[in-house]
Amino acid sequence: MTALPPDLRVDADPAWSQPVVGVIGGLGPAATALFLKLVVDLTPAVRDQDHLDLVVLDHSTTADRTAYILDPDHATDPGPGLARDATRLAALGAAFVSIPCNTAHHFVDEITAASGLPVVDVVEETARAAAGAAGGAGVAVLATDGTRAAGVYQRALERLGADVVLPSDEQQKLVMSVIYDGVKAGGPVDVEGLLGVVEQLRADGAGVVVMGCTELSVVYDDQGWRERADIVDSVETLARATVLRAGRTPRR
């Protein structure tokens, strides 16, 4: 990759506040839009110039993460593309990267190795928030089949000593339909069915339920579930961690 002229790097430009946040977005687009909105909402600011400076690559054509995790022999590997995008952000002068996609964090080691940039890990941050909120009870995780198969949340929660509660096969089918047929495809969302899964997992012993896919975060936001103490949202958690990493104190 051709090096960017030094005078075009944002970390060398006094007109840009530091540190500059790099964002790999488009995974999917609605979730990225929500993440950016929450970063704005959580940043303590009274004028435009008080907000964070970000470089956003809204790379919606990135290969599907779940498809590759489930069938690597017949699907395109998104890892190299994610790594190249992080390297582009490094070349532009970003100090760290936030990726509003839980499944993409299966590839986080590849991303950091290629770019040299630290990644704000949405899985680790959300697992920590959920384990704390659960108060010793189990933590249920709603996520894509890819995130579930990769085991990223299971490992993160087990390291924290939290018991993991996963949806049944039938519940998981409904979750995947909400993600792919609903939010990603712009189709109808079975909100009542999703809420039923949440309530059943709570009845099965989960102290909190994690919205561990950023498309589920879109539903969570649309439905006004932000005041529910028994749901931990990954996009909101990532936005808060991003604001903190940039040296600011989030508004809430």
How would you describe the overall organization of this protein?
The chain has 252 residues and is of the alpha/beta class. The protein has helices at residues 29-42, 65-70, 79-92, 108-115, 122-134, 145-150, 152-159, 169-184, 191-203, 214-222, 234-245, and strands at 21-25, 54-58, 96-98, 119-120, 138-142, 164-165, 206-211, 231-233. It has 2 domains: 21-121 and 239-246, Rossmann fold, CATH 3.40.50; 123-234, Rossmann fold (3-Layer(aba) Sandwich). 47% of the residues lie in helices and 12% in strands. The protein has a 4-stranded parallel β-sheet with strand order 2-1-3-4, sandwiched between helices. Helix 5 (122-134) packs across helix 11 and helix 8 packs antiparallel against helix 9 (191-203). The longest helix has 16 residues, at 169-184. The N and C termini lie far apart (40 Å). Belongs to the aspartate/glutamate racemases family. Its EC number is 5.1.1.13. It comes from Allobranchiibius huperziae.
